Amino acid sequence: MDSGVKEPRSDVERSAIGKVSRRLVPFVALMFFINFLDRTAISFAAPHGLRDDLGLSAAQFGFASGVFFIGYIILEIPSNLALHKFGARKWLARIMVTWGIVAVLFTWVQSAVQLYWLRFLLGVMEAGFFPGAILFLSMWVPARHRAKILGLFYIAQPLTTAIGAPLAGLLIQLHGLFGLDGWRVMFLGVGLPAIVVGILALVILKDHPGEAHWLTSEEQGWLTSELAREAAQTEAVHKVGLAETFRNGRVWALSFVYFGFIYGLYALSFFLPTIVNGFREQLGDLSATQEGLITGAPYVVAAVVLYLWSRKVQKDGLKVWHIVLPAFVGAVSIPTALFVQGNPLVTMVFVALTACSIFAVLPNFWTLPTQFLTGAAAAAGTALINTVGNIAGFSAGYITGWLKDLTGGYIVPMFVVGGVMAISGLILVSLRGVDARRGGRKGTTTDSADEVAIA
Protein backbone atom coordinates (compact mmCIF):
# COMPACT_ATOMS: atom_id res chain seq x y z
CA MET A 1 0.00 0.00 0.00
CA ASP A 2 1.38 3.34 -1.00
CA SER A 3 -0.10 6.53 0.32
CA GLY A 4 0.42 8.11 -3.07
CA VAL A 5 2.15 11.42 -3.69
CA LYS A 6 4.46 12.18 -0.80
CA GLU A 7 4.74 15.96 -1.10
CA PRO A 8 2.08 18.63 -1.71
CA ARG A 9 1.64 19.25 -5.41
CA SER A 10 0.48 22.87 -5.25
CA ASP A 11 0.47 25.94 -3.03
CA VAL A 12 -3.28 25.53 -2.44
CA GLU A 13 -2.80 21.92 -1.33
CA ARG A 14 0.11 22.85 0.92
CA SER A 15 -1.76 25.73 2.59
CA ALA A 16 -5.01 23.76 2.97
CA ILE A 17 -3.33 20.78 4.66
CA GLY A 18 -1.26 23.15 6.81
CA LYS A 19 -4.35 24.95 8.06
CA VAL A 20 -6.14 21.69 8.86
CA SER A 21 -3.01 20.59 10.77
CA ARG A 22 -2.88 23.82 12.78
CA ARG A 23 -6.54 24.77 13.22
CA LEU A 24 -8.47 21.52 13.44
CA VAL A 25 -6.15 18.73 14.58
CA PRO A 26 -4.98 20.35 17.87
CA PHE A 27 -8.54 20.79 19.13
CA VAL A 28 -9.57 17.24 18.23
CA ALA A 29 -6.32 16.05 19.84
CA LEU A 30 -7.26 17.98 23.00
CA MET A 31 -10.59 16.16 23.00
CA PHE A 32 -8.71 12.86 22.67
CA PHE A 33 -6.32 13.86 25.47
CA ILE A 34 -9.24 14.43 27.85
CA ASN A 35 -10.96 11.28 26.61
CA PHE A 36 -8.02 9.00 27.33
CA LEU A 37 -7.24 10.73 30.64
CA ASP A 38 -10.79 10.23 31.91
CA ARG A 39 -10.92 6.55 30.98
CA THR A 40 -7.49 5.80 32.56
CA ALA A 41 -7.85 8.07 35.61
CA ILE A 42 -8.77 4.99 37.63
CA SER A 43 -5.19 3.72 37.21
CA PHE A 44 -3.80 6.86 38.87
CA ALA A 45 -6.34 6.68 41.70
CA ALA A 46 -5.79 2.96 42.45
CA PRO A 47 -2.45 3.12 44.31
CA HIS A 48 -3.37 6.38 46.08
CA GLY A 49 -6.41 5.39 48.08
CA LEU A 50 -9.08 4.08 45.74
CA ARG A 51 -8.20 0.39 46.10
CA ASP A 52 -7.77 0.62 49.87
CA ASP A 53 -10.83 2.79 50.48
CA LEU A 54 -13.09 0.55 48.38
CA GLY A 55 -11.37 -2.71 49.42
CA LEU A 56 -10.53 -3.89 45.89
CA SER A 57 -8.39 -6.92 45.03
CA ALA A 58 -6.24 -6.82 41.88
CA ALA A 59 -8.89 -8.84 40.04
CA GLN A 60 -11.69 -6.49 41.19
CA PHE A 61 -9.66 -3.50 40.10
CA GLY A 62 -9.01 -5.21 36.77
CA PHE A 63 -12.75 -5.83 36.36
CA ALA A 64 -13.54 -2.20 37.22
CA SER A 65 -10.95 -1.08 34.68
CA GLY A 66 -12.34 -3.35 32.00
CA VAL A 67 -16.12 -3.13 32.56
CA PHE A 68 -15.93 0.29 30.91
CA PHE A 69 -15.56 -1.50 27.59
CA ILE A 70 -18.80 -3.50 27.82
CA GLY A 71 -21.05 -0.49 27.32
CA TYR A 72 -18.49 1.06 25.01
CA ILE A 73 -18.45 -1.99 22.75
CA ILE A 74 -22.24 -2.44 22.66
CA LEU A 75 -22.87 1.12 21.45
CA GLU A 76 -19.75 1.71 19.36
CA ILE A 77 -21.20 0.94 15.93
CA PRO A 78 -24.62 2.60 16.53
CA SER A 79 -22.82 5.69 17.81
CA ASN A 80 -20.60 5.97 14.74
CA LEU A 81 -23.59 5.52 12.43
CA ALA A 82 -25.35 8.29 14.36
CA LEU A 83 -22.30 10.50 13.84
CA HIS A 84 -22.50 9.81 10.11
CA LYS A 85 -26.20 10.74 10.13
CA PHE A 86 -26.24 13.79 12.42
CA GLY A 87 -22.76 15.18 11.77
CA ALA A 88 -19.52 15.02 13.75
CA ARG A 89 -19.83 18.47 15.37
CA LYS A 90 -23.03 17.76 17.28
CA TRP A 91 -22.34 14.11 17.99
CA LEU A 92 -18.77 14.47 19.28
CA ALA A 93 -19.90 17.39 21.46
CA ARG A 94 -22.76 15.29 22.87
CA ILE A 95 -20.38 12.44 23.65
CA MET A 96 -17.95 14.72 25.50
CA VAL A 97 -20.53 16.49 27.65
CA THR A 98 -22.27 13.28 28.75
CA TRP A 99 -19.05 11.40 29.53
CA GLY A 100 -17.81 14.47 31.44
CA ILE A 101 -20.88 14.37 33.68
CA VAL A 102 -20.29 10.69 34.47
CA ALA A 103 -16.56 11.28 35.00
CA VAL A 104 -17.32 13.91 37.63
CA LEU A 105 -19.59 11.45 39.50
CA PHE A 106 -16.55 9.25 40.27
CA THR A 107 -15.68 11.90 42.85
CA TRP A 108 -18.33 10.47 45.20
CA VAL A 109 -18.06 6.71 44.54
CA GLN A 110 -18.44 4.74 47.79
CA SER A 111 -18.26 1.02 46.91
CA ALA A 112 -16.95 -1.48 44.39
CA VAL A 113 -20.44 -1.94 42.95
CA GLN A 114 -20.87 1.80 42.43
CA LEU A 115 -17.44 1.89 40.80
CA TYR A 116 -18.44 -0.91 38.40
CA TRP A 117 -21.63 0.90 37.40
CA LEU A 118 -19.91 4.24 36.86
CA ARG A 119 -17.20 2.63 34.75
CA PHE A 120 -19.90 0.91 32.69
CA LEU A 121 -21.81 4.18 32.22
CA LEU A 122 -18.59 5.99 31.29
CA GLY A 123 -18.13 3.45 28.50
CA VAL A 124 -21.72 3.95 27.34
CA MET A 125 -21.28 7.71 27.15
CA GLU A 126 -17.84 7.58 25.49
CA ALA A 127 -18.94 5.04 22.86
CA GLY A 128 -18.11 6.19 19.37
CA PHE A 129 -15.78 9.03 20.27
CA PHE A 130 -12.48 7.56 19.09
CA PRO A 131 -13.62 5.98 15.79
CA GLY A 132 -15.75 9.08 15.25
CA ALA A 133 -12.72 11.33 15.65
CA ILE A 134 -10.67 9.13 13.30
CA LEU A 135 -13.45 9.16 10.72
CA PHE A 136 -13.96 12.90 11.13
CA LEU A 137 -10.29 13.71 10.46
CA SER A 138 -10.16 11.22 7.59
CA MET A 139 -13.04 13.09 5.93
CA TRP A 140 -11.03 16.32 5.97
CA VAL A 141 -7.88 15.26 4.13
CA PRO A 142 -7.05 13.00 1.16
CA ALA A 143 -5.53 9.58 1.84
CA ARG A 144 -1.96 10.65 1.05
CA HIS A 145 -2.03 13.12 3.98
CA ARG A 146 -3.80 10.95 6.56
CA ALA A 147 -0.66 9.41 8.08
CA LYS A 148 0.54 12.92 8.93
CA ILE A 149 -2.82 14.17 10.23
CA LEU A 150 -3.56 11.06 12.29
CA GLY A 151 0.01 11.06 13.61
CA LEU A 152 -0.44 14.62 14.90
CA PHE A 153 -3.80 13.63 16.40
CA TYR A 154 -2.44 10.47 18.02
CA ILE A 155 0.33 12.33 19.83
CA ALA A 156 -2.37 13.26 22.34
CA GLN A 157 -2.56 9.67 23.59
CA PRO A 158 1.01 9.20 24.88
CA LEU A 159 0.95 12.80 26.10
CA THR A 160 -2.12 11.91 28.15
CA THR A 161 0.13 9.80 30.34
CA ALA A 162 3.26 11.95 29.94
CA ILE A 163 1.37 15.07 31.06
CA GLY A 164 -1.69 13.50 32.63
CA ALA A 165 0.20 11.33 35.11
CA PRO A 166 2.04 14.25 36.77
CA LEU A 167 -1.18 16.32 36.56
CA ALA A 168 -3.11 13.53 38.28
CA GLY A 169 -0.35 13.39 40.90
CA LEU A 170 -0.67 17.12 41.58
CA LEU A 171 -4.44 16.82 41.92
CA ILE A 172 -4.07 13.84 44.26
CA GLN A 173 -1.79 15.93 46.46
CA LEU A 174 -4.65 18.42 46.93
CA HIS A 175 -5.96 16.05 49.58
CA GLY A 176 -8.59 17.78 51.70
CA LEU A 177 -9.76 20.23 49.01
CA PHE A 178 -13.54 20.57 49.34
CA GLY A 179 -13.24 17.98 52.12
CA LEU A 180 -12.34 15.27 49.60
CA ASP A 181 -9.64 12.61 49.57
CA GLY A 182 -6.85 13.31 47.06
CA TRP A 183 -7.94 10.65 44.57
CA ARG A 184 -11.47 12.07 44.62
CA VAL A 185 -10.13 15.56 43.88
CA MET A 186 -8.31 14.03 40.93
CA PHE A 187 -11.51 12.59 39.46
CA LEU A 188 -13.23 15.96 39.81
CA GLY A 189 -10.29 17.77 38.20
CA VAL A 190 -10.10 15.53 35.14
CA GLY A 191 -13.85 15.24 34.64
CA LEU A 192 -14.90 18.89 34.46
CA PRO A 193 -12.76 19.77 31.38
CA ALA A 194 -14.68 17.25 29.27
CA ILE A 195 -17.91 19.20 29.82
CA VAL A 196 -16.28 22.54 28.99
CA VAL A 197 -14.47 21.32 25.87
CA GLY A 198 -17.58 19.46 24.71
CA ILE A 199 -19.53 22.72 24.71
CA LEU A 200 -16.69 24.49 22.87
CA ALA A 201 -16.74 21.75 20.22
CA LEU A 202 -20.15 22.97 19.05
CA VAL A 203 -18.53 26.29 18.13
CA ILE A 204 -15.10 25.20 16.91
CA LEU A 205 -15.76 22.03 14.91
CA LYS A 206 -17.21 22.06 11.39
CA ASP A 207 -18.63 19.05 9.60
CA HIS A 208 -16.83 19.59 6.30
CA PRO A 209 -14.30 21.97 4.66
CA GLY A 210 -17.02 24.05 2.99
CA GLU A 211 -18.08 25.36 6.43
CA ALA A 212 -14.56 26.31 7.61
CA HIS A 213 -14.25 30.12 7.57
CA TRP A 214 -10.50 29.80 8.17
CA LEU A 215 -10.03 28.24 4.72
CA THR A 216 -9.96 30.39 1.59
CA SER A 217 -12.47 29.64 -1.15
CA GLU A 218 -9.67 28.08 -3.22
CA GLU A 219 -8.65 25.83 -0.30
CA GLN A 220 -12.26 24.84 0.35
CA GLY A 221 -12.72 24.04 -3.32
CA TRP A 222 -9.56 21.96 -3.56
CA LEU A 223 -10.33 19.90 -0.43
CA THR A 224 -13.96 19.36 -1.40
CA SER A 225 -13.21 18.31 -4.97
CA GLU A 226 -10.22 16.13 -4.01
CA LEU A 227 -12.17 14.32 -1.29
CA ALA A 228 -15.15 13.80 -3.61
CA ARG A 229 -12.90 12.47 -6.39
CA GLU A 230 -11.13 10.10 -4.00
CA ALA A 231 -14.41 8.84 -2.50
CA ALA A 232 -15.86 8.20 -5.95
CA GLN A 233 -12.73 6.32 -7.00
CA THR A 234 -12.71 4.19 -3.86
CA GLU A 235 -16.41 3.41 -4.26
CA ALA A 236 -15.93 2.44 -7.91
CA VAL A 237 -13.01 0.12 -7.18
CA HIS A 238 -14.11 -1.55 -3.95
CA LYS A 239 -17.90 -1.12 -3.69
CA VAL A 240 -18.09 -2.24 -0.06
CA GLY A 241 -21.63 -1.60 1.14
CA LEU A 242 -22.82 -1.15 4.72
CA ALA A 243 -24.10 -4.74 5.09
CA GLU A 244 -21.03 -6.18 3.37
CA THR A 245 -18.76 -4.37 5.83
CA PHE A 246 -19.68 -6.85 8.56
CA ARG A 247 -18.75 -9.79 6.32
CA ASN A 248 -15.58 -8.26 4.89
CA GLY A 249 -12.54 -10.42 5.69
CA ARG A 250 -10.12 -7.49 5.64
CA VAL A 251 -12.20 -5.57 8.16
CA TRP A 252 -12.13 -8.55 10.54
CA ALA A 253 -8.42 -9.16 9.97
CA LEU A 254 -7.65 -5.53 10.83
CA SER A 255 -9.93 -5.85 13.86
CA PHE A 256 -7.80 -8.65 15.28
CA VAL A 257 -4.57 -6.82 14.47
CA TYR A 258 -5.88 -3.83 16.38
CA PHE A 259 -6.94 -6.09 19.26
CA GLY A 260 -3.33 -7.02 19.96
CA PHE A 261 -2.09 -3.46 20.16
CA ILE A 262 -4.96 -2.30 22.33
CA TYR A 263 -4.40 -5.26 24.67
CA GLY A 264 -0.81 -4.11 25.11
CA LEU A 265 -1.77 -0.46 25.45
CA TYR A 266 -4.31 -0.96 28.23
CA ALA A 267 -2.35 -3.59 30.13
CA LEU A 268 0.45 -1.01 30.26
CA SER A 269 -1.85 1.94 31.03
CA PHE A 270 -3.84 0.34 33.84
CA PHE A 271 -0.99 -1.38 35.68
CA LEU A 272 2.10 0.76 35.05
CA PRO A 273 1.27 3.21 37.91
CA THR A 274 0.99 0.21 40.26
CA ILE A 275 4.33 -1.17 39.01
CA VAL A 276 5.97 2.23 39.48
CA ASN A 277 4.50 2.40 42.98
CA GLY A 278 6.43 -0.82 43.67
CA PHE A 279 9.74 0.98 43.02
CA ARG A 280 9.54 2.38 46.56
CA GLU A 281 11.68 -0.52 47.79
CA GLN A 282 14.58 0.65 45.60
CA LEU A 283 13.92 4.39 45.46
CA GLY A 284 12.40 5.09 48.86
CA ASP A 285 9.18 7.01 49.42
CA LEU A 286 7.86 8.78 46.33
CA SER A 287 5.25 11.49 46.22
CA ALA A 288 2.25 11.10 43.91
CA THR A 289 3.77 13.76 41.64
CA GLN A 290 7.13 11.96 41.49
CA GLU A 291 5.40 8.69 40.64
CA GLY A 292 3.45 10.54 37.96
CA LEU A 293 6.64 11.90 36.42
CA ILE A 294 8.22 8.42 36.37
CA THR A 295 5.05 6.92 34.86
CA GLY A 296 4.87 9.66 32.24
CA ALA A 297 8.52 9.57 31.14
CA PRO A 298 8.22 6.57 28.74
CA TYR A 299 5.29 8.27 27.04
CA VAL A 300 7.29 11.41 26.31
CA VAL A 301 9.72 9.23 24.39
CA ALA A 302 6.78 7.44 22.74
CA ALA A 303 5.28 10.76 21.58
CA VAL A 304 8.56 11.72 19.89
CA VAL A 305 8.90 8.30 18.24
CA LEU A 306 5.25 8.44 17.11
CA TYR A 307 5.85 11.76 15.39
CA LEU A 308 9.10 10.69 13.72
CA TRP A 309 7.71 7.32 12.65
CA SER A 310 4.60 8.95 11.14
CA ARG A 311 6.85 11.38 9.26
CA LYS A 312 8.80 8.42 7.86
CA VAL A 313 5.60 6.68 6.79
CA GLN A 314 4.37 9.89 5.17
CA LYS A 315 7.65 10.09 3.24
CA ASP A 316 8.00 6.41 2.27
CA GLY A 317 4.40 5.30 1.95
CA LEU A 318 3.04 2.72 4.40
CA LYS A 319 4.90 -0.60 4.17
CA VAL A 320 4.09 -3.80 6.04
CA TRP A 321 7.24 -3.59 8.17
CA HIS A 322 6.18 -0.16 9.50
CA ILE A 323 3.58 -2.05 11.55
CA VAL A 324 5.02 -5.54 11.88
CA LEU A 325 8.46 -4.51 13.22
CA PRO A 326 7.05 -2.49 16.15
CA ALA A 327 4.63 -5.34 16.90
CA PHE A 328 7.48 -7.81 17.38
CA VAL A 329 9.61 -5.30 19.30
CA GLY A 330 6.74 -4.73 21.74
CA ALA A 331 6.12 -8.46 22.02
CA VAL A 332 9.68 -8.94 23.32
CA SER A 333 10.13 -5.75 25.35
CA ILE A 334 7.05 -5.90 27.58
CA PRO A 335 7.82 -9.25 29.30
CA THR A 336 11.52 -8.36 29.41
CA ALA A 337 10.66 -5.27 31.47
CA LEU A 338 9.41 -7.53 34.25
CA PHE A 339 12.58 -9.66 34.31
CA VAL A 340 14.67 -6.57 35.08
CA GLN A 341 12.20 -5.15 37.61
CA GLY A 342 14.86 -5.07 40.30
CA ASN A 343 16.44 -2.15 38.46
CA PRO A 344 13.87 0.65 38.04
CA LEU A 345 15.88 2.49 35.36
CA VAL A 346 16.31 -0.57 33.12
CA THR A 347 12.66 -1.51 33.69
CA MET A 348 11.50 1.90 32.49
CA VAL A 349 13.76 1.69 29.42
CA PHE A 350 11.96 -1.48 28.34
CA VAL A 351 8.59 0.04 29.24
CA ALA A 352 9.48 3.02 27.04
CA LEU A 353 10.43 0.65 24.23
CA THR A 354 7.03 -1.04 24.55
CA ALA A 355 5.19 2.28 24.55
CA CYS A 356 7.15 3.39 21.47
CA SER A 357 6.31 0.18 19.61
CA ILE A 358 2.58 0.54 20.28
CA PHE A 359 2.31 4.23 19.44
CA ALA A 360 4.49 3.95 16.34
CA VAL A 361 1.82 1.68 14.88
CA LEU A 362 -1.55 3.12 15.88
CA PRO A 363 -1.88 6.30 13.76
CA ASN A 364 -0.53 4.52 10.69
CA PHE A 365 -2.83 1.57 11.24
CA TRP A 366 -5.87 3.83 11.04
CA THR A 367 -5.00 4.95 7.51
CA LEU A 368 -5.86 1.43 6.32
CA PRO A 369 -9.68 1.12 6.69
CA THR A 370 -10.55 4.33 4.84
CA GLN A 371 -8.54 3.17 1.83
CA PHE A 372 -11.23 0.63 0.96
CA LEU A 373 -14.30 1.91 2.86
CA THR A 374 -16.35 5.06 2.26
CA GLY A 375 -19.50 6.73 3.62
CA ALA A 376 -21.65 4.68 6.00
CA ALA A 377 -19.43 1.64 5.35
CA ALA A 378 -16.41 3.61 6.59
CA ALA A 379 -18.34 4.66 9.70
CA ALA A 380 -19.43 1.08 10.41
CA GLY A 381 -16.10 -0.51 9.50
CA THR A 382 -14.05 1.90 11.59
CA ALA A 383 -16.39 1.35 14.53
CA LEU A 384 -16.30 -2.45 14.09
CA ILE A 385 -12.49 -2.50 14.10
CA ASN A 386 -12.43 -0.30 17.18
CA THR A 387 -15.13 -2.42 18.84
CA VAL A 388 -13.25 -5.70 18.39
CA GLY A 389 -10.03 -3.98 19.38
CA ASN A 390 -11.55 -2.59 22.53
CA ILE A 391 -12.68 -6.00 23.69
CA ALA A 392 -8.98 -6.06 24.56
CA GLY A 393 -9.58 -3.06 26.80
CA PHE A 394 -11.84 -5.19 28.97
CA SER A 395 -9.85 -8.41 28.74
CA ALA A 396 -6.46 -6.76 29.31
CA GLY A 397 -7.47 -5.23 32.62
CA TYR A 398 -9.33 -8.26 33.92
CA ILE A 399 -6.94 -10.98 32.69
CA THR A 400 -3.86 -9.08 33.85
CA GLY A 401 -5.34 -8.60 37.33
CA TRP A 402 -6.58 -12.18 37.52
CA LEU A 403 -3.24 -13.64 36.46
CA LYS A 404 -1.43 -11.37 38.89
CA ASP A 405 -3.60 -12.65 41.77
CA LEU A 406 -3.15 -16.24 40.57
CA THR A 407 0.63 -16.17 40.11
CA GLY A 408 1.59 -13.48 42.63
CA GLY A 409 3.37 -11.30 40.07
CA TYR A 410 3.21 -9.66 36.66
CA ILE A 411 5.59 -11.97 34.74
CA VAL A 412 2.91 -14.30 33.33
CA PRO A 413 0.44 -11.48 32.53
CA MET A 414 3.10 -9.59 30.60
CA PHE A 415 4.06 -12.71 28.62
CA VAL A 416 0.41 -12.88 27.58
CA VAL A 417 0.62 -9.24 26.45
CA GLY A 418 3.74 -9.98 24.41
CA GLY A 419 2.15 -13.01 22.82
CA VAL A 420 -0.98 -11.13 21.76
CA MET A 421 1.10 -8.36 20.18
CA ALA A 422 3.19 -10.92 18.28
CA ILE A 423 0.00 -12.51 16.90
CA SER A 424 -1.08 -9.09 15.59
CA GLY A 425 2.12 -8.82 13.62
CA LEU A 426 1.71 -12.33 12.23
CA ILE A 427 -1.88 -11.64 11.11
CA LEU A 428 -0.75 -8.58 9.17
CA VAL A 429 2.07 -10.56 7.53
CA SER A 430 -0.49 -13.22 6.57
CA LEU A 431 -2.87 -10.59 5.20
CA ARG A 432 -0.06 -9.15 3.10
CA GLY A 433 0.75 -12.64 1.79
CA VAL A 434 -2.85 -13.37 0.83
CA ASP A 435 -3.17 -10.09 -1.06
CA ALA A 436 0.17 -10.63 -2.79
CA ARG A 437 -0.99 -14.04 -4.04
CA ARG A 438 -4.27 -12.56 -5.26
CA GLY A 439 -2.36 -9.85 -7.09
CA GLY A 440 -0.12 -12.49 -8.68
CA ARG A 441 -3.10 -14.53 -9.88
CA LYS A 442 -4.57 -11.40 -11.46
CA GLY A 443 -1.26 -10.60 -13.13
CA THR A 444 -0.95 -7.31 -11.25
CA THR A 445 2.12 -5.78 -9.69
CA THR A 446 2.74 -3.42 -6.80
CA ASP A 447 5.26 -0.65 -6.45
CA SER A 448 7.09 -2.48 -3.69
CA ALA A 449 7.12 -6.01 -2.41
CA ASP A 450 6.89 -4.60 1.09
CA GLU A 451 3.78 -2.52 0.50
CA VAL A 452 0.75 -3.28 2.65
CA ALA A 453 -1.94 -4.42 0.26
CA ILE A 454 -5.37 -4.71 1.80
CA ALA A 455 -7.49 -3.34 -1.00
Protein topology:
Blueprint: H1 11-45, H2 50-54, H3 58-86, H4 88-105, H5 112-126, H6 129-138, H7 146-154, H8 156-172, H9 182-204, H10 217-238, H11 242-245, H12 249-277, H13 280-283, H14 288-316, H15 321-339, H16 344-365, H17 375-407, H18 411-441
Helix pairs in contact: 1-6, 1-7, 1-8, 1-9, 1-10, 1-12, 3-4, 3-5, 3-17, 4-5, 4-6, 4-9, 6-17, 7-14, 7-16, 8-9, 8-14, 12-14, 12-16, 12-17, 12-18, 14-16, 15-16, 15-18, 17-18
Pfam families: MFS_1
Subcellular location: Cell membrane
Main location: membrane
Describe the structure.
It is a multi-pass membrane protein. InterPro entries: MFS, MFS_dom, MFS_trans_sf. The chain crosses the membrane at residues 24-46, 58-79, 91-110, 116-137, 149-173, 185-205, 251-272, 292-309, 321-339, 345-365, 372-398, 410-431. Residues 24-437 form the Major facilitator superfamily (MFS) profile domain. Mean pLDDT is 81; it is low at 1-8 and 442-455. By secondary structure, the protein is mainly alpha-helical. The protein has helices spanning 11-45, 50-54, 58-86, 88-105, 112-126, 129-138, 146-154, 156-172, 182-204, 217-238, 242-245, 249-277, 280-283, 288-316, 321-339, 344-365, 375-407, 411-441. It is 78% helix and 0% strand.
Defining key terms:
single chain; 455 residues; mainly alpha; Growth Hormone, Chain: A; 18 helices; 78% helix; 0% strand; globular; disordered C terminus
